[in-house]
Design brief:
Helices cover 7% and strands 42% of the residues. Strands 1-24-23-22-21 form a 5-stranded antiparallel β-sheet. Strands 2-27-26-25 form a 4-stranded antiparallel β-sheet, with no helix packed on it. The chain is built from 1 helix and 27 strands.
């Protein structure tokens, strides 16, 4: 025997209203979760705490790697970023959205541009650093050190003299006999003729960036949860005796130091526990951009005047507007 339940229109409206209230409160909670926290008054000159944190696109990443490597293409007015898991390079154009720019990419991770505007990429599958020429061909910048293959190059930055610096944090679960047995931070000379191992005592060297005058190289160690700083020598290597911990970004919330960038005033931007930190040139925490994702994988400046901070998480691309410009990419060539 079937049983019919009579439901009045008034009851249906009440249920709908309640459901709507739940949805609205859920949206409100999600918005409230996104916030800009101020730890020091100096943050006022960098970003307003009322500045909206925008989600631009989502649905990227996966088991083989997250969204990563945002780099602004000024002359085109668009952003490129990596979708490692799906083996694609994505293009975000303000007002138009996201499209596939290039595939496959050998599961490229960190991206940057050299002094001529060519895109450099740290490729996971081939375990090398490459440069895409203006005609679309690919030049291998580095793929091994002293006859042993890199583990898996991760992030890359170019100095104003054309030298290329990159991190190599870790490789396949089962290494082969011709693989390197240590992590490293490397320098490739401007003519690509000399590859130098700068330091090899990081557990997971990851993001790296120069101070505005290029007198300091910042490199973070994701496993240790901190950023280290090194003074630079005139020959482009590191003054190892100046090695110091610049900032510790560990905490109870998810997130570790990963990609890292610097603005024109020398403030450092890096992911860490609970969000994306803004630190002054001395390493003092000025504030934190809490974007609601469990990790900040990388970031980059772009937009009008280089005052938009784009950032990636494991699955999405976001942005926030700043009052101060980031260091442009490509960096201005050294006179």
């Amino acid at each position: 025997m079937e049983i019919y339940h009579a439901i009045s229109r008034r009851h249906m409206l009440a249920v709908s209203a309640a459901a709507g209230g739940v949805a609205i409160s859920g949206i409100a909670r999600a918005q409230a979760a996104k916030r800009i926290e101020q730890f020091d008054p100096a943050l006022d000159s960098i970003i307003a705490t009322s500045e909206p944190i925008k989600e631009l696109a989502s649905g990227f990443g996966g088991d083989l790697g997250p969204a990563e490597g945002p780099v602004w293409i000024k002359e085109g007015g668009y952003l490129l970023f990596s979708d490692i898991h799906n083996n694609r390079r994505m293009k975000y154009t303000p007002g138009q959205g996201v499209s596939v720019f290039l595939e496959p990419t050998n599961r490229a991770n960190g991206l940057t541009r050299d002094l001529q505007g060519r895109v450099l990429a740290c490729e996971h599958d081939t375990r090398r650093v490459t440069r895409r020429e203006l005609d679309g061909s690919v030049t291998v910048i580095a793929s091994s050190f002293q006859g042993q293959r890199f583990l898996r190059p991760n992030d890359v930055v170019v100095k104003s003299d054309g030298a290329i610096y990159f991190t190599d944090p870790g490789g396949p679960a089962v290494p082969e006999q011709w693989d390197l047995t240590h992590t490293g931070v490397y320098r490739v000379s401007p003519d690509l003729g000399t590859l130098t191992l700068l330091v090899s005592d990081f557990i997971v060297p990851n993001g790296l960036a120069f101070s505005p005058d290029e007198s300091i190289l910042y490199v973070n160690d994701s496993r240790r949860g901190h950023i280290r700083a090194f003074d630079m020598l005139p020959n482009g290597t590191l003054a190892r005796q100046t090695d110091r911990v610049f900032a510790d970004l560990r905490g109870a919330e998810p997130g570790v130091p990963d990609g890292m960038k610097v603005d024109v005033a020398g403030n450092v931007y890096c992911g860490g526990s609970g969000g994306l930190y803004i630190l002054d040139p001395k390493g003092k925490k000025l504030g934190r951009i809490v974007h609601g994702q469990p990790a900040t994988t990388n970031l980059g400046f772009g937009g009008d005047g280089w005052k938009t901070l784009f950032f990636t998480s494991r699955v999405h691309l976001g942005s926030v507007n700043l009052k101060i410009a980031g260091i442009p990419v490509p960096v201005a060539k050294k006179a």
